[in-house]
Design a protein that fits this description.
Blueprint lengths: L18 E5 L6 H24 L3 E4 L15 H8 L8 E5 L6 H9 L4 E6 L6 H14 L5 E5 L5 H13 L9 E3 L7 H16 L1 E6 L13 H4 L4 E6 L1 H10 L2 H13 L3 E2 L11 H21 L3 E4 L13 H7 L24 E2 L4 H16 L6 E12 L2 E7 L17 E2 L21 E11 L2 E11 L4 H9 L7 E6 L4 H7 L4 E7 L2 H17 L3 E5 L5
Parallel strand pairs: 1-2, 1-3, 3-4, 4-5, 7-8, 7-10, 9-14, 10-11, 16-19
Antiparallel strand pairs: 6-19, 12-13, 12-18, 13-17, 15-16, 15-18, 16-17
Helix pairs in contact: 2-3, 6-12, 6-15, 8-10, 9-10, 10-11, 12-15
Length: 545
């Protein structure tokens, strides 16, 4: 018999009674990890207090690293090593007070057999709730059972009762009374339209061009071909290096024309001179070249929608993608001609875009664009981070924000309501302009496409973007990211905790309708389209269908 060197058997420590292990997935970038650690440490102290009052101990799975000064898991490899020392059947807490890269911990979570609890703070300045929602979407996609909970200060009775339920039973039950499956829709023009558009998509097919998949660890934002293709949507996988090469070939004069068009239409830019900390004209010109390049590459490949990964790649060689992302999905935008100059590309049309290469958003944006366009409505969509929110004047008002900026038609004054501010140097070292503004008051339809039990699902609901006083808007901006566009959103028939418990992503997709009745009709047409495509549709809150 041959003498082979066999690996030593893997061993795990035994689970201790009334002990929960704690991990915290962090950013891939050390700057955000270091700046976010004090808030994370305070949160973990609060959790230790809450669990201690129930007679439980919390054991941190990895110590604070003296070299970095924080205790976040900051890479997939580090996550694999940390999980080697966690009893596979122990109660496990994933505590988040910052944005996190889910893939750092997904491998360990996938094979963990003990009860899992995801916990987040609920704050604007430290967006753990955003990171946790992305992680929850990933756990849902891979079919992993978990419980979830959140709190502003970890002292409220609702939070304390939820933790008590988890330590006693291994689960937390949340109110889902706002959710109902799409009923059988009666015959209507809207139903017929949705079904016809779905049939056209399945027959004629469409191409989504994705510049590098898997942005920022968002496993939940990757939709497998086997689920996307039956809808009639196919991927053209493109490299961000090709986008950069196209930008280098774009003439300076064409970029100058785009920026001039924007300023002629009322957009202003907060220019400075320090490339490291301020917005400069050179940064904006490079963003204009990205906008031109996206449309020309889309024309080359015959794309129907596009998404850019950007943040782990292009951020190190060029300014942010935000300006290009915002204006490309707007009906009114700077003209870009084909390479031979004979055609204006997608003239008078919004080109569907998935910020951060979120493929759930790509499917949603493409279908929404066709439904809204067929109904003669403005088809400009955007995703927003579910960033934070508070009560105002007796109702809960969400702060929806996104670094990948919104179409200017979402502002009351269009381009005249848009300001170009520099992106935060910590996340975007080479700068670039956002499209800062306040989303106009009006009726909205919100939604999310996600994977559960190996199938595509759509959650869809109604709501309103509302006006708040200028001082309240500024307070909310300063509590989050004042350089980003903001929407003050009220979701119809869905409270804060219902939304948090149900939502399967850090992103929500938003589109406007001119009035409530039209919004209801458009929602029915969109729901009918998705149902005809074979997607399981769920109505959220108050929906007239």
């Amino acid at each position: 018999m041959a003498a082979y060197t066999l690996p030593a058997p893997s061993t795990r420590p035994a689970a201790l009674p009334k002990t929960a292990y704690l991990v915290s997935s962090g950013d891939l970038r050390e700057g955000p990890n270091k700046s976010g650690w004090p808030v994370q440490k305070a949160m973990e102290d609060d959790l230790a207090r809450v669990f201690g009052a129930l007679g439980w101990n919390i054991r941190r799975a990895n110590p604070i690293d003296p070299a970095t000064g924080h205790g976040f898991i900051s890479s997939q490899r580090m996550g694999l090593e940390v999980f080697k020392d966690i009893p596979v059947d122990a109660p496990l807490i994933v505590a988040e007070s910052v944005w996190q890269y889910s893939h750092h911990v997904l491998a360990g979570l996938r094979t963990h057999t003990g009860p899992i609890l995801t916990v987040a703070n609920f704050a604007g300045s430290a967006p753990g709730l955003v990171g946790m929602l992305g992680l929850n979407g990933g756990l849902t996609k891979m079919g992993k059972q978990y419980s979830t909970i959140w709190s502003v200060d970890f002292t409220d009775t609702w939070f304390l009762d939820g933790v008590k339920q988890w330590v006693e039973s291994g689960t937390i039950t949340h109110d889902a009374s706002h959710v109902r499956d799409l009923p059988t829709l009666p015959a209507s023009d809207e139903k017929a339209l949705g079904e016809a558009l779905a049939g056209q998509l399945k027959t004629d097919k469409a191409i989504f061009g994705v510049f590098d998949e898997g942005c920022m660890g968002m496993y939940n934002a990757i939709i497998d071909d086997e689920l996307m293709n039956p809808l009639g949507i196919y991927k053209e996988r493109l490299s961000q290096s090709a986008l950069w090469a196209e930008m280098l070939r774009t003439p300076d004069a064409e970029a100058e024309a785009v920026v001039s068009w924007l300023t002629d239409h009322g957009m202003t830019f907060d220019y400075g001179t320090d490339e490291a900390t301020e917005l400069t004209k050179n940064q904006v010109l490079l963003q204009a070249k990205m906008y031109i390049s996206l449309l020309r590459i889309a024309d080359d490949y015959g794309l129907d929608a596009v998404g850019i990964q950007y943040q782990q790649g292009l951020k190190d060689i060029c300014p942010a993608s935000d300006l290009a992302e915002g204006i490309i999905n707007n009906v009114e935008r700077p003209p870009v001609t084909s390479r031979d100059g004979s055609r204006v590309l997608w003239e008078g049309k919004a080109f569907p875009l998935a910020n951060e290469a979120d493929e759930g958003v790509a499917i949603d944006a493409l279908v929404t664009n066709r439904v809204w366009s067929a109904m003669g409505l403005d088809p400009a969509t955007t995703l927003h981070d579910v960033r934070w929110g508070e009560d105002y004047d007796g109702q809960f008002v969400w702060v929806f924000e996104i670094s990948g900026s919104v179409p200017p038609s979402h502002f009351a004054d269009g381009y005249a309501g848009a300001q170009g501010w520099r992106q935060n140097p910590m996340y975007f070292p080479l700068g670039g302009s956002t499209i800062k503004g306040v989303s106009k008051a009006g009726e909205i339809v919100w939604s999310r496409v996600y994977i559960e039990h190996g199938e595509l699902h759509l959650d869809i609901g109604r709501g309103q973007a509302v006006d708040l006083p200028a001082e309240e808007t500024e307070r909310r901006w300063q509590a989050t990211n004042p350089e980003w566009p903001i929407m003050h959103a009220v979701l119809s028939g869905v409270n804060r905790d219902q939304f948090m418990a149900r939502h399967k992503a850090n992103h929500a997709q938003l589109v406007y309708a001119p009035d409530a009745a039209t919004a209801d009709r458009a929602l029915i047409a969109k729901a009918a389209a998705f149902e005809a495509l074979g997607v399981k549709v769920h109505l959220m809150g108050t929906v007239n269908a």
